[in-house]
């Protein structure tokens, strides 16, 4: 088993997606979308002078390369990470990507070529999801703007109905102006609360996007850690197998040495016994050897020669066996040293990865706390705005009732004024008649119809009298 490579693993996640908002006064509403480049986003809200409301949205995709690779992810998520960090991580895209980056083993992961493929894999794997998330966010913003425009038009219509009546002259003509000023203040307050609500929603969405990005980074690192743990387990099994093979080879080497020693002793004993036998036979048959000296040969020299050849062969086999076993032991030691270096490197990488995971977990917890705080603030603002709108609606209702009462009173005053004007005209006619009578003129007055419902007649004795209308039945 050979493992090459000494460079350390490193992943740097970078987020280049930012969101901002701005409030401005303008005469018309507008909606804009897009961005000049990657890694920028913004939302602008415009408040018209006559209650018009507008919004603009800019969005982008952020992606960058650090020590390894980085990505900026967009899109909000709700419900926290309760079910997302448990057993559900095994099927996520980031977890699968982290495993695939190290699935080829440490030799392919530590290689430079593998490091070049990682950003491409990340870009291809997350591009569609990022664009889909940005499209969903843009659609949500546009829908929110449309809803706010409809609400603004509704409020504008209600205000026009409340303040759009004809002005009447009378004692209380300044009351509608005061009501209109109060309604304008209430309208500005409602619009301010609406813009504040939108701002909190934008901040909450940004925090959710950052939390989603950290969740994706965490899943990616978790996938890498899972694959590295699997590789370490496989390496441990290889180390155990190599250790077992080494022990077996050492046992075989010891057994071969024992066999060699045993063979040496056996051969020495056989040579000793042969020499003793050959010496005894030489003493008993000296005459035969002397008689047949011309035909005999030196057995001692032959045996010594055979012994030398046998010892030489045994020594050669011993040297070959020692050379073979030494080569095997050196190879096993080399593999063990390489495996130990790789294990140390992997342990270092695991330690750094654990530190990064702890840092990411701390950031995630802080972002979750900020998210919870913003949600609480948003709920509080919504509750306050609801209560304020209800109070303002009650005040508007009371003002409408007061306006209606003032209109009724004004109508009564106008009717009374008209009646008094009719009586005044009748009295003017009577005074003119008295003047003419005093001057001695004989005047015949016609019947006067002054007010509806009565006829007045004049005589010199009684003056003006109201003549009751009577009906005559014709038979």
From TrEMBL:
One of its GO terms (molecular function) is structural constituent of cytoskeleton. PANTHER family: GLIAL FIBRILLARY ACIDIC PROTEIN, VIMENTIN. Residues 183-277, 343-409 form a coiled coil. Belongs to the intermediate filament family. Gene3D superfamilies: 1.20.5.170, Single helix bin, Vasodilator-stimulated phosphoprotein. SMART domains: Filament. GO terms for biological process: intermediate filament organization. One of its GO terms (cellular component) is intermediate filament. This is IF rod domain-containing protein. PROSITE patterns: IF_ROD_1, IF_ROD_2. Residues 127-445 form the IF rod domain. Keywords: Coiled coil, Intermediate filament. The keyword Coiled coil applies.
């Amino acid at each position: 088993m050979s493992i090459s490579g000494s460079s350390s693993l490193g992943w740097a996640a970078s987020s280049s997606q930012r969101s901002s908002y701005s409030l401005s006064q303008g005469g018309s509403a507008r909606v804009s979308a897009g961005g000049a480049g990657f890694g920028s986003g913004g939302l602008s809200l415009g408040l018209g002078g006559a209650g018009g409301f507008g919004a603009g949205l800019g969005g982008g995709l952020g992606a960058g390369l650090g020590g390894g690779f980085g990505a900026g992810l967009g899109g909000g998520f709700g419900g926290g990470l309760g079910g997302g960090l448990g057993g559900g991580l095994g099927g996520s895209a980031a977890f699968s990507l982290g495993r695939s980056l190290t699935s080829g083993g440490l030799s392919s992961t530590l290689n430079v070529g593998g490091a070049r493929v990682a950003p491409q894999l990340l870009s291809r794997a997350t591009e569609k999801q990022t664009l889909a998330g940005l499209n969903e966010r843009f659609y949500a913003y546009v829908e929110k703007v449309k809803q706010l425009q409809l609400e603004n038009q509704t409020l504008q219509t209600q205000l026009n109905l409340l303040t759009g009546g004809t002005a009447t002259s009378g004692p209380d003509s300044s009351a509608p102006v005061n009501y209109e000023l109060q309604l304008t203040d209430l309208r500005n307050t409602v619009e301010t609360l609406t813009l504040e609500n939108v701002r909190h929603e934008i901040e909450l969405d940004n925090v959710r996007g950052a939390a989603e990005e950290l969740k994706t980074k965490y899943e990616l690192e978790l996938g890498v850690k899972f694959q590295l743990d699997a590789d370490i387990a496989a390496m441990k099994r290889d180390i155990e197998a190599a250790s077992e093979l080494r022990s077996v080879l050492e046992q075989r080497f010891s057994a071969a040495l024992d066999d060699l020693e045993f063979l040496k002793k056996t051969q020495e004993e056989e040579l000793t016994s042969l020499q003793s036998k050959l010496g005894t036979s030489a003493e008993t048959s000296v005459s035969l050897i002397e008689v047949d000296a011309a035909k005999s040969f030196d057995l001692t020299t032959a045996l010594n020669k055979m012994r030398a050849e046998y010892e030489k062969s045994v020594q050669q086999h011993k040297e070959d066996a020692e050379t073979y076993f030494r080569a095997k032991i050196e190879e096993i030691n080399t593999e063990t040293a390489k495996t130990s270096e790789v294990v140390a490197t992997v342990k270092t990488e695991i330690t750094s990865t654990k530190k990064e995971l702890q840092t990411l977990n701390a950031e995630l917890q802080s972002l979750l706390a900020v998210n919870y705080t913003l949600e609480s603030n948003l709920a509080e603002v919504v509750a306050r705005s609801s209560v304020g709108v209800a109070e303002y609606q009650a005040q508007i209702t009371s003002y409408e009732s007061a306006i209606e009462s003032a209109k009724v009173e004004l109508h009564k005053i106008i009717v009374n004024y008209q009646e008094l004007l009719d009586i005044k005209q009748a009295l003017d006619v009577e005074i003119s008649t008295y003047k003419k009578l005093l001057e001695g003129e004989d005047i015949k007055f016609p019947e006067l119809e002054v007010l509806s419902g009565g006829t007045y007649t004049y005589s010199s004795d009684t003056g003006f009298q109201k003549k009751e209308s009577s009906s005559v039945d014709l038979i």
